[in-house]
Amino acid sequence: MRKKDIAYEKIKELILDREYMKNHNISENFLAEKLEMSRTPVREALQRLQVEGFIEIFPNRGIALRDVTVLEANEIFDLRMAIEEFVVKNVSPLLTDKHFREIDRNLSFQKQAIEKGDVTEYLQYDRDFHDCFLQIYSNSLIIFTAKRVQDRFFSVGVNVLKGPGSVERSFRQHCEIVEALRKDDSKMAVEAMHLHLLTGKRNLMA
Fold first, then answer.
1. CA angle (47, 72, 60) in 5-degree steps
2. Backbone Cα Rg of the chain
3. Is residue 69 helix, strand or coil?
4. pLDDT score at 27
5. Are the CB atoms for 157 and 205 separated by under 8 Å?
6. Residue 141 CA: distances (Å) to CA of 110, 147, 148, 190
7. Which of 51, 76, 81, 125 has fewest C-beta within 10 Å?
8. Mind listing the pLDDT tens digit for each residue in 113-142?
9. d(Cα 182, Cα 97) in Å, to the nearest integer?
10. What are the DSSP calls for 107-149, one per residue?
11. Taking phi first (over 0 means left), then psi (-120 to 50 degrees means alpha), and beta for anything else, what does residue 24 get?
């Protein structure tokens, strides 16, 4: 992997940790020192992240997170619906007992995060949950597209789950998706996924 690609992945990880970004004055020099790289690959990575909409670069002032606009939030959820409803509609024949054990394990981690009241941890397991079906379906172009959308979503995910009972409702909807797939009921799985993503979209818009 090229240095600029390594820098891109590492810087994006920092960007997705919004608390880290709030607590540090992020600049090109700061990142070059942290990553122990020259400024050139760091600069190229930052330019790519700016084009993708994650950050704004202010010369001589540093780097700031770019908030997701209402239009972008709508587009994110519309694309997620198109991708993830298609995947759950078609993934059922590929699911094995091993897959369901892995999914159940993820659900148990989600439940533990809820019991701890850790929304950030829950969001990571939520992301892994959705990513699991994409990986099993294994369409490389879908995975590539969904990853970019998921990264952008992850940066605002806490806002999606900010309402009373939102995390618990999200978890119940995950369980309903899995139950439909366990029954090999693709229609029910699509409906459950649609409701799940629509709920997230409404929460964010509110």
1. 30
2. 18
3. coil
4. 85
5. no
6. 28, 10, 11, 21
7. 51
8. 999 998 888 988 999 999 999 999 999 999
9. 10
10. HHHHHHHHHHT-HHHHHHHHHHHHHHHHHHHT-HHHHHHHHHH
11. beta
